[in-house]
Design a protein that fits this description.
Elements: E1 2-6, H1 15-24, E2 31-35, H2 40-45, E3 50-54, H3 57-61, E4 67-69, E5 90-91, H4 96-103
Parallel strand pairs: 3-5
Antiparallel strand pairs: 1-2, 1-3, 2-4
Length: about 110
């Protein structure tokens, strides 16, 4: 199971990416959606606006819905226009769990 978190807005940006984000249910910044492997092409199409990776079972249990709203992360982002590991966009593997914990409401 993959967690996809929208980091950037799309005002004045790529129309296809904006439509893809809407189809994924990621209409606002800091929203998170859970997807399986069949959605990888759609995730990769929106990769310049989201970060994604494999979510652990422990964190997955904390979210009862497929789409959840998160807070901005504690201690902020590195760079929202650069690809991980230099920045925050794109695939980050199991490191997505650390980001989710920093973004969880009440954390």
């Amino acid at each position: 199971m993959y967690a996809v978190i929208r980091i950037r807005g799309v005002i004045g940006k790529n129309k296809k990416a904006e439509d893809t984000l809407k189809m994924m249910g990621l209409r606002r910044r800091y929203s998170m959606a859970l997807f399986d492997e069949s959605n990888l092409p759609m995730i990769k199409r929106a990769e310049s606006y989201v970060t994604w990776g494999e979510i652990s079972k422990d964190i997955q249990k904390k979210f009862d819905k497929k789409i959840s709203r998160l807070n901005s992360p504690k201690k902020g982002f590195k760079a929202t226009k650069m690809i991980y590991p230099k920045g925050d966009l794109g695939y980050r593997g199991d490191k997505i769990n650390e980001l989710i914990e920093r973004m969880m409401p009440g954390a």
